[in-house]
Amino acid sequence: MKPLVELQEVTVQREGRTLLEKVSLEVEVDSIHVLVGPNGAGKSTLFSCLLGLADFAGSIQFHFRGNGRIGYVPQRFTVDRTLPLTVGEFLVLRRRRRPVCFGLSPAARAQAEELLARVSLQGFSDRPLSALSGGEQQRVLLANALDPLPELLLLDEPASGLDEPSLEAFETTLLALKTTVFMVSHDLEQARRVADQVTVLDRSVRKSGPPAKALEHGLRT
């Protein structure tokens, strides 16, 4: 069976600098593939290529079998604190027809709470989005990315800065997903806990394999 994502010699050059050099890797169907590496290794640049936001040489192929949807959770999410938007309104915003100022209908509220239950944030529908902690915001973004369930979920250091309870809830949600996950992480222990496959990137692929093998000596090659 073909992998869901197949990269062949992906190279990115910008202003005379090589950000990625001949990166080749595969992300298998229904796996959690974690990308690790030092700062400046090109991890976020690689995600930009996958999202069609950066020019590159080489080849990226998606072998979708279902809805072909890609979900994405960025590393940072900035909320305007003057924005009068609740968590529930944010989650149903793109699929509602009436103005936000009319509030949530019972059906929309039930839908929002169902999404929040996936990330252990039940009862958060009426909370202001801007009042959430960084960890809570990341989990709301994850809930949003899971509706509808994507065939490929891209997570760019989504657990950065999470406290212990939020991190545990995030990983529990991640391990329960029935989809393919490609995740950037700076946390090697997290990669060992959740990954089926780990790739160590430093502009090019340095190591790749099961966590025990790829991370046997940390990031050292």
What does this structure look like?
By secondary structure, the chain is an alpha/beta fold. The protein folds into 2 domains: 5-78 and 150-214, P-loop containing nucleotide triphosphate hydrolases (Rossmann fold), CATH 3.40.50.300; 80-131, no CATH class. It has helices at 43-50, 87-92, 106-117, 134-145, 164-176, 188-194, 211-214, and strands at 5-14, 17-27, 32-36, 57-62, 70-73, 152-156, 180-184, 197-202, 204-209. The strands form 2 sheets. It has a 6-stranded mixed β-sheet with strand order 5-6-7-3-8-9, with helices on both faces. A 3-stranded antiparallel β-sheet has the order 2-1-4, covered by helices on one side. It is globular, with a radius of gyration of 18 Å. The model has no long low-confidence stretch (mean pLDDT 89).
Question: For the residues shown, what is the average pLDDT?
Answer: 89
Distance between the termini: 30 Å
The CATH superfamily name of the largest domain is P-loop containing nucleotide triphosphate hydrolases
Which oligomeric form is depicted? single chain
State which percent range the strand residues make up.
25-35%
**Helix coverage percent:** 25-40%
**Unreliable sequence segments:** none
Order of helices and strands: EEEHEEHHHEHEHEEH
CATH topology of the largest domain: Rossmann fold
Rg estimate, integer Å = 18 Å
Strand order of the largest sheet: 5-6-7-3-8-9
Sketch the major β-sheet. 6 strands, mixed
User: What count of structural domains?
Assistant: 2
Q: Mind telling me the CATH class of the largest domain?
A: Alpha Beta
**Class computed from helices, strands and strand pairing:** alpha/beta
Q: Tally the helices: what do you get?
A: 7
Based on the coordinates given, report the CATH architecture of the largest domain: 3-Layer(aba) Sandwich
Number of strands: 9
Overall 3D shape: globular
